[in-house]
Design a protein that fits this description.
Strand content: 15-25%
Keywords: Decarboxylase, Lyase, NAD
CATH superfamily: NAD(P)-binding Rossmann-like Domain
Protein name: Epimerase
Number of helices: 12
Largest sheet: 8 strands, mixed
Pfam families: Epimerase
CATH architecture: 3-Layer(aba) Sandwich
CATH topology: Rossmann fold
GO molecular function: NAD+ binding; UDP-glucuronate decarboxylase activity
Cofactor: NAD(+)
Strand order of the largest sheet: 4-3-2-1-5-6-7-11
Helix content: 40-55%
């Protein structure tokens, strides 16, 4: 059973997004992916806002398995003000009543090396997004936030330290494993078409790597798997040589970025969302070992597998910082400490 997120983080988000709660008071919010890492954080923030600011936002949440969602997080999904709607983004009943705002945060990053999984993920990105856009229009929504990904840029050139929104790279269309990035690119295009053809204000968040309480410890996130092993007293195992470079934005900061984007973002525009502080996977593992005070043998870093520059996945976030007044407010060290301590307490 998942416990509540840190109250101090939720209150910090509310402090930095006061204009959001004034604007969307009594709004009806429809959100997909509400049981996922990003979606559940947003829902807890809204739930906290309803209690603290009396914003009275009603939440309608799409879930494949509402009963499991209630069992996993009863503090969130059994609370008043939340309605769970059973369905998948590609197949759900759109008769949910009038809505004012839509956040499409459903995503799937399973193994795309298998053709069947790749097609399912692509369909979720494209067919699912169109279904949610149609629902938003038919039910009266005026604002739509799409959570996309830095995967839309494809492989980051080694000569480019940070990727701006103007970068014209793309995933390899002949590589089956790029289904996630391909689907997100198509989803962004769809959202922009709807923004142009209808009275729907659409903003796109290209999200990079994240860290924070409730990060899955058995999944596609290396940081989560490292924390799992460190807290279990096991040696952290690296896949590959540990040289790939990433950056990590704390989840409370992410919520501020997304909520400000929903409120202030320019329609038809995409914004990179992430930290610009680069760190290698091996360095991340070492940091997690140190902060968690792991007594397991130190992580073994394999020898580099080639002379080429390590792969990078780091955004240029000047556009969002200038337009939305956001930043990576939480340092990586603090973010890791908060994440590790929450998982240690709630294991």
């Amino acid at each position: 059973m998942r416990k509540a997120l840190p109250t101090e983080d939720l209150d910090q988000v509310l402090e930095w997004t006061a204009d959001v709660w004034a604007r969307f008071d009594r709004a009806r919010l429809f959100i997909t992916g509400g049981t996922g890492f990003v979606g559940s954080w947003l829902l807890e923030v809204v739930q906290r806002a309803n209690r603290v600011t009396s914003s009275r936002i009603e939440m309608v949440v799409l879930s494949r398995d509402p009963d499991r969602a209630r069992a996993d997080a009863p503090h969130l999904f059994n609370a008043s003000g939340i309605t769970l709607v059973k369905g998948d983004v590609t197949d759900f009943d759109g008769d949910i009543g009038a809505i004012d705002v839509c956040i499409h945060a459903a995503t799937d990053v399973a193994d795309t090396s298998k053709a069947a999984d790749a097609l399912r993920i692509f369909d979720a990105g494209v067919i699912g997004t169109r279904r949610v856009l149609d629902l938003a229009l038919s039910n009266g929504a005026s604002r739509f936030l799409l959570t996309s990904s830095g995967a839309v840029y494809g492989k980051q050139p080694s000569s480019l330290l940070k990727v701006p929104e103007t970068f014209q790279g793309a995933p390899d269309q002949l590589d089956v494993s790029t289904a996630y990035g391909q689907g997100k690119r198509a989803a962004e295009w769809l959202a922009c078409v709807y923004a142009q053809q209808h009275a729907l204000h659409v903003s796109v968040a290209r999200i990079y790597a994240l860290i924070g309480p409730a990060i899955p410890l058995d999944g596609p996130f290396a940081a989560g798997n490292f924390i799992r092993d460190a807290l279990a007293g096991r040696q952290i195992t690296l896949k590959g040589d540990g040289r790939p470079v990433r950056s990590y934005l704390y989840m409370a900061d992410l919520c501020v970025w997304l909520l400000r984007m929903l409120n202030r973002g320019e329609s038809g525009q995409a914004y990179n969302v992430g930290s610009e502080r680069a760190i290698s996977i091996a360095e991340l593992a070492t940091q997690i070992e140190f902060i968690s005070e792991s007594r397991a043998p130190a992580v073994t870093v394999p020898a580099a597998t080639g002379d080429e520059a390590p792969p990078r996945y780091v955004p240029d976030t000047r556009k969002a910082r200038n337009a939305l007044g956001v930043d990576a407010f939480t340092s990586l060290e603090v973010a890791l400490s908060k994440t590790i301590n929450w998982h240690r307490t709630h294991r």
